[in-house]
Amino acid sequence: MPPPEPTDPPERESFSHRLHASTIGSGPRLVMAHGFTQTGLVWNSLDRRLATEHGVVRVDMPGHAASSHVAADLTEGAHLLADLGGRAAYLGYSMGARFCLHLAVARPDLVDSLVLISGTAGLDDPADRADRRSKDEVLADELDPVDGPDPTAGIRTLRQARVDAFLDRWIRQPLFAGVPPEANGMEERRRNTGPGLASSLRLAGTGTQEPLWSNLARLEMPVLVVTGADDAKFTALGARLVGAIGSNATQVVVGGAGHAPHLQRPADVASAVLDHLR
């Protein structure tokens, strides 16, 4: 059965350790880690739907929003996530899935259950990783250039204009085709800073991730892998994740969705996640 229509439960703020998070709902703890350029509040209605049965901890990941000051690679960020979330179920999307997967490998005792949305265990080929790091460095330089501020514009205005231009191009990628404008969280994404996003690319981009494929068979917690049917690349990667993890992993492919199924089909994703967590 589909989950009940979400309401807006009371919100509690915390600045525990170094990462910022807000918590809604009550019940078993579920920690949610967002994707690149998003924030702890960019989940469309997925977070509120899950909060009908769980205490949902919505984290601003390193380099993002209220955690923009936190510069951390995937290993460091996974430990910061663990410090904040403790023992819980963990859900990560894209970049957030990489952090959650690192946490599950490093501290499986803290991860009761794992949900990976459009995630990967890394690029196998060192040349591919180097190429991705090079491309991400170009993007990082765009967000946080080494040249001085434009004397014709205020520093704050110029920095926000750079972030806005980057975000506009980012969400227009074919990867996110089909996400309705009202669901992409553009205004919330504008809380990010150029230096914060640049540090995220440089330290926690896909090219920085050492492949974890050989470690996945050690995972014993229940694992749900969610992908969009229109995202052939990550649906194939999802099948590979399930195969590498073993019988405790399952995959759900969401019809009519691409790389961000939670933004396109939040009710369908919520149903799959709640069934998994139950």
Walkthrough of the structure:
The chain has a single domain (1-278), classed as Rossmann fold (3-Layer(aba) Sandwich), CATH 3.40.50.1820. The protein is globular. It is an alpha/beta fold and 278 residues long. Helices cover 39% and strands 16% of the residues. It has an eight-stranded mixed sheet with strand order 1-2-4-3-5-6-7-8, with helices on both faces. The model is unreliable at 6-16 (pLDDT under 50).
What's the level 1 CATH class? Alpha Beta
User: How many strands, what sense, and barrel or not for the largest sheet?
Assistant: 8 strands, mixed
Number of domains: 1
Q: How large is the share of residues in beta strands?
A: 15-25%
Q: What's the architecture, going by CATH?
A: 3-Layer(aba) Sandwich
End-to-end gap = 13 Å
Stretches with pLDDT under 50, minimum 5 residues? 6-16
- Helix and strand succession? EEEHEHEHEHHHHEHEHH
**CATH topology grouping:** Rossmann fold
By DSSP (H or I, 4+ residues per run), the number of helices equals 10
List keywords for this structure.
39% helix, single chain, 8-stranded mixed β-sheet, 278 residues, globular, 8 strands, alpha/beta
